[in-house]
Specification:
The complex is a heterodimer. Chain A is of the alpha/beta class. Chain A has 2 domains: 1-85 and 178-260, Rossmann fold, CATH 3.40.50.300; 96-175, no CATH class. Helices cover 39% and strands 24% of the residues of chain A. In chain B, helix 2 packs across helix 3 (79-90), helix 2 packs across helix 6 and helix 8 packs across helix 9. Chain B is built from 21 helices and 28 strands. By secondary structure, chain B is α/β, with parallel strands linked by helices. Chain B has a 5-stranded parallel β-sheet, sandwiched between helices. A 5-stranded mixed β-sheet of chain B has the order 12-13-14-15-16. The longest helix of chain B has 23 residues, at 304-326. Classes of the chains: A alpha/beta, B alpha/beta. At the A-B interface, helix 5 and helix 7 of A face loops of B.
């Protein structure tokens, strides 16, 4: 592998998250290095999606500290995550079904637009020139993901695998430095999974994007991740390179053993 | 104002590089090529193209490409790929386009046969194929790629980005400004301009060497018949390795000077077609068929009023549309109705199809159903057929305006002589004949007889008006056990004219009856099934449904009724058939890359099924290995139902 993995950019220390009496996450610490592909795995209800939601500010942990590029992060809201260049996709596709692929991906550029609401609505001032520039970026994403043929198709009419790809496109349009992917391959057939793997690796390789992903397909996780963290019942039971994790007794018992 | 392609002015321009320079000189700012990039159509003018070709040619020469070298070209239709053809020709080299969807091993034979030293490929996918065959192809020295995507980690010194090649060429050109002109001057019309490999339904592919003179003659003839003009547009989307694309998108474009348009990707062709609105369009029958199927499916979902209007005016078009297009006598009332229909139905329909601006549309490669052919002509699209092979630059017969017969391929094109041999084989002679098969003097000698006629291998006859009718491949025409003539293609085509039938293979030579394999068209039959509430999970499941079997049986029996009235073919009625459990596929070697059935291969592979057909069995179990696109293998199995069809008494004239 020729890619360079950099310094720690996200450091989570002793994170605990509770919903009333339910402990979703208990005392979890791990970090993410720049340019790496970091996977979070674990059985259902292990707290994986909660973990992602903590990272991009949807949930606020009761205990623990989060450091983003060396600085401690205080209470954060999701839109601030977007401004910090963290983009994500969702476990259940969250696209605008009635809008075209192009328009959906365009929404990924919203945080980068400077024109105000009135300018956009009336299509004057900065709105037009901005949109042209953003459209070019969006077209680059479309080209990258090889979805030219569905550019103008309403998203609701697309098969599931392609919708997932469009969602990735929207996240990419924001030119994120960190990309959070919540089960990008759930419900896909083998060919779609292979495509998605290729796109994730290409994003990581070509743009240097740091990727944190949750995934159930062990083959995929072990193939593409640089490091893996394993959760079970809200606790961390393993952390390290795929080989290490694969041979971890506790992990095998909790997850791999049960599933395979 | 359209300027007629001035054929006389082209005299003295007898090689493609000269033609290119001529256009760059006389119409420097006219568009020569377009390609959609990042959603926007980019245009290259003739002077842009000439500049790039010059740079590419000089770059190639810098790498050591010499007169007589072959240049493999592998990729989708891209402007740079066409420019590379011209660049090789400037240096007296021979471009050799290959089918880009073939896997590396399939390409190996051709690459070895042509001792390829230089290859220009489209992208990483094709580069990987070159790396795969390299060990078996020691002659290969340089690989040039067009699209740098995914190539960041490839650092082999024999790989070159096409833009680097151009830069190298520009420097070379500055240092040796007279070099390329001198090379072009050396080019002779009798030099080989391109090498196209035959698809190889039988045996190994053979390289067909065509000269500049041959392709230019073929291009001029076509332009003359169709009065083609310089401001036209063509959508170039069929494989560059196919002779038709070379004739339309390269030879004719170079001679007439119209614009070639390259689609964004294989999947966007239909969208690009609508955006470009070509004036000149070529598609194999199956494309016209799927266009029509999609229109019909959408019409069924339209409102009642629209449906009524559509069917009413289609009946009008059916009655008089084709005659109006041919300039024949039609009653004033019909003319008025047709005009109204044009406003309400035909015009919008042509627009939806992306064929509003089409002056001539062509189809060839397989027989087209008369209904289908008539449909397009009746809505005002000047659809024609032509006939030709790789060995004749796809130029033997053309259908002249005003004299179109549905069941013939037209009259001999300008400069072409046709003769029917005693065994019914079609023989042709003219300026467009191949120079030779590459390194195969034996095959060349076999294919051209002592009088200079090329043996096409097709059986056919000339009718009273001098129109050529093709029956079948001469070697496929056989006899049934009772001695009656049996032409499998003829019957298979009749089957394929039904929208529900995608492919058919008939058996019957030296047997007492004709039996058939059928592939259903998953789109049309799927839609048909949905409307009847028949649930299915995929091709194999749908093909096995009793209702689908009955549907196809109706089609077969309809053909049998038709055949009974044909005194030559009445014995060829289909007695039994089965629907195959998988689609015949080039990846499984059952079809050639141009989607023709490899008859012998199929009959060996499915021998149990043929035996079952002739043993009178009612069902037969079969398991077949299939290759998926990603190289994995799987198995498909099914119990196939064999159906007996009604046959009709032969209406022989008492003799």
């Amino acid at each position: 592998m020729s890619k360079k993995i950099g310094d720690v950019i996200l450091d989570l220390q002793n994170i605990s998250l509770r919903f009333g009496g339910v402990k979703a996450l208990t005392d979890i610490s791990f970090n993410v290095r720049e340019h790496e592909i970091r996977a979070i795995i674990g059985p259902n209800g292990a707290g994986k999606s909660s973990m992602l939601n903590v990272i991009n500010g949807v949930y606020h942990p009761q205990e623990g500290k989060i450091f983003w590029r060396g600085k401690e992060r205080k209470r954060m809201e999701p839109h601030m995550a977007a401004q910090q260049n963290i983009a994500r996709t969702f476990q259940n596709i969250a696209l605008f079904k009635g809008m075209s692929v192009l328009d959906n991906i365009m929404t990924g550029r919203m945080t980068k637009m400077k024109a105000n609401f009135i300018e956009h609505a009336l299509w004057f001032g900065r709105a037009k020139s901005e949109e042209l520039a953003h459209r070019r970026k969006v077209e680059e994403v479309i080209d990258f993901l090889e979805i030219q043929h569905i550019r103008k198709t309403p998203v609701g009419r697309l098969p599931y695998g392609l919708q997932k790809r469009v969602e990735l496109g929207r996240a990419l349009a924001a030119e994120p430095s960190m990309l959070l992917l919540d089960e990008p391959m759930a419900g896909m057939n083998v060919e779609e999974k292979q495509d998605m793997c290729r796109f994730i690796l290409d994003v990581n390789d070509q743009f240097g994007t740091t990727i944190v992903l949750i995934e159930h397909d062990m083959g995929v996780v072990m193939d593409i991740s640089d490091r893996v963290v394993v959760l079970d019942y809200g606790k961390k039971i393993g952390d390290g390179e795929p080989e290490e994790v694969k041979n971890n007794e506790e992990v095998i018992k909790a997850y791999l053993g049960a599933g395979h | 104002m359209p300027t007629p392609a001035n054929i006389a002015a082209l005299d003295g321009l007898h090689t493609f590089p000269r033609l290119l320079l001529h256009h760059a000189r006389t119409r420097p700012n006219a568009p020569a090529m377009r390609e959609k990039n990042l959603g926007i159509w980019q245009t290259w003018t003739w002077s842009d193209v000439a500049e790039r070709v010059r740079a590419l040619a000089c770059g190639l020469s810098e790498l050591g490409f010499k007169r007589g070298d072959n240049l493999a070209i592998i990729g989708d239709n891209r402007p740079h790929m066409y420019m590379m053809m011209a660049a090789a020709q400037c240096l007296g080299g021979v471009p050799l386009p290959l089918y880009q969807d073939a896997v590396a091993n399939e390409m190996l034979f051709v690459l070895q046969d042509a001792s390829i030293r230089f290859a220009v490929v489209e992208d990483q996918e094709q580069v990987d194929k070159m790396l795969e065959v390299m060990a078996d192809l020691p002659s290969l020295q340089h690989v040039i790629y067009d699209d740098p995507r995914g190539m960041r980690h490839y650092n082999q010194s024999f790989l070159h980005d096409i833009h680097e090649l151009m830069e190298m060429g520009r420097i070379h050109d500055r240092n040796h400004p007279d070099f390329l002109n001198a090379e072009i001057e050396q080019g002779h019309f009798d030099d080989v301009s391109v090498m196209l490999y035959t698809s190889g339904t039988t045996g190994k592919p053979k390289g067909v060497c065509q000269t500049h003179a041959a392709f230019i003659a073929a291009a001029r003839g076509g332009i003359e018949v169709d009065k083609m003009v310089a401001d036209g547009d063509i959508l170039s989307y069929l494989p560059m390795a196919w002779v038709g694309d070379h004739l339309f998108s390269y030879a004719q474009a170079m001679v007439a000077g119209f614009t070639i348009n390259c689609p964004e990707s294989g999947e966007t062709v239909m969208t690009d077609l609508r955006e470009i609105g070509p004036t000149y369009y070529f598609a194999p029958p199956r494309v016209f068929e799927s266009l029509l199927t999609s229109v019909m499916i959408r019409m069924e979902d339209a409102g009642k009023l629209k449906q009524k209007m559509f069917h009413y005016f289609m009946a009008v078009a059916d009655r008089c549309g084709a005659d109006i297009l041919d300039g024949k006598m039609v009653s004033t009332a019909d003319r008025l109705l047709y005009g109204l229909g044009n406003l309400l139905v035909y015009g919008p329909l042509r627009n939806v199809l992306g064929l509003s601006r089409v002056r001539v549309a062509y189809t060839a490669g397989a027989a087209i159903g008369p209904e289908l052919f008539k449909f397009y002509r009746s809505i005002g699209i000047n659809l024609k057929q032509f006939y030709g092979q790789t060995e004749t630059c796809a130029y033997v017969c053309l259908q002249p305006d005003g004299a179109i017969k549905f069941d013939s391929v037209g009259q001999p094109a300008p400069g072409v002589e046709i003769k029917i041999a005693d065994n019914g084989e079609v023989l042709v002679k003219g300026p467009m004949l191949l120079k030779a098969y590459y390194k195969r003097p034996d095959a060349t000698a076999e294919s051209i007889n002592a009088d200079g006629y090329f043996l096409t291998g097709d059986a056919g006859f000339l009718d009273e008006d001098g129109h050529l009718k093709i029956i079948d491949r001469a070697k496929d025409v056989g006899k049934l056990a009772n001695g009656a003539m049996y032409a499998p293609n003829f019957i298979e085509n009749k089957l394929k004219f039904f929208q529900y039938v995608k492919e058919a293979v008939c058996f019957g030579a030296n047997r007492d009856m004709v039996c058939a394999f059928v592939n259903i068209d998953i789109g049309a039959v799927g839609n048909w099934a949905e409307r009847r509430g028949i649930a299915y999970s995929g091709y194999t499941d749908l093909a096995g449904k009793t209702e689908v079997g009955e549907l196809i049986q109706q089609c077969v029996e309809e053909i049998n009724a038709g055949l009974a009235g044909d005194s030559m073919m009445a014995d060829s009625q289909i007695h039994r058939f089965l629907i195959l459990h998988k689609e015949l596929d080039p990846d499984d070697d059952e079809l050639t890359r141009t989607r023709k059935v490899r008859r012998n291969f199929v009959s060996d592979k499915y021998k149990v099924l043929i035996d079952a057909l002739y043993d009178g069995k009612q069902t037969q179990f079969i398991e077949t290995e299939v290759k998926f696109e990603d190289g994995r293998r799987g198995k498909v199995s099914a119990d196939l139902l064999i159906r007996d069809c009604k046959t009709f008494p032969i209406a022989r004239k008492a003799a």
